Amino acid sequence: MGRTVLTYGTFDLFHIGHLNILKRLSELGDRLIVGVSTDEFNAIKGKKPVVPFEQRIEIVRAIRYVDLAIPEENWAQKREDIEKYNVDVFGIGEDWKGKFDDLEDKVEVVYLPRTSGISTTEMKRVLSAFDERHVEELKRTLDSISQIVKELS
Predict the structure, then answer these.
(1) 47 carries an active-site annotation
(2) How far, in Å, are 104, 113, 124, 153 from residue 18 at the CA level?
(3) Which residue in 47, 55, 90, 147 has the fewest CB atoms around it within 10 Å?
(4) Looking at residue 129, what is its pLDDT?
(5) pLDDT at residue 7 tops 70
(6) One of 23, 47, 106, 124 is an active-site residue; which one?
(7) Phi, psi for residue 140 in degrees, rounded to 5
(8) HSE value, Cβ hemisphere, 13 Å, CA-based, for 100
């Protein structure tokens, strides 16, 4: 069997940055395994995903670059999965640079650059600006536009 690459992530609000890193990781070997953080593990990390775990893992499983998607349930799992799946390369985004160097006794560790201009954190920040008041204002504006269109038709 060829080289196996392993990565992990939450993959919330799946975007082109996620796709780019999965594609680049798949090019580092012959098999790509992706651990998707469960909602419970994200809670431990202080994260609250918008998209539920079951949907996030299904999205990841549907990506052609991914050979296997598994639940990520705890920090220690990385070492266990490296052994279990006979992993050669552990890869992750450069925002984690240095955090997984301790795995170098088992695998090659690679930190890949992020896609510029896209971030789940930034997407969530923008979405959070749409509180109920803004949503109601937006709805009233759309209703007004709809009425104008009807009158002009």
Answers:
(1) yes
(2) 24, 11, 15, 43
(3) 147
(4) 62
(5) yes
(6) 47
(7) -60, -40
(8) 26
CB 11 within 8 A of CB 60: yes
For residue range 77-104, what is the model confidence (pLDDT) as tens digits?
999 999 999 999 999 999 899 999 999 9
- Per-residue pLDDT of 8-43, as tens digits, reads 999 988 888 899 999 999 999 999 999 999 999 999
Is the pLDDT score of 1 beyond 70? Answer: no
How far apart are the C-alpha atoms of 45 and 81, rounded to whole Å? 19
Longest CA–CA span in the chain (Å) reads 71
Catalytic residue at 97?
no
- Residue tagged active-site, from 45, 48, 97, 99: 45
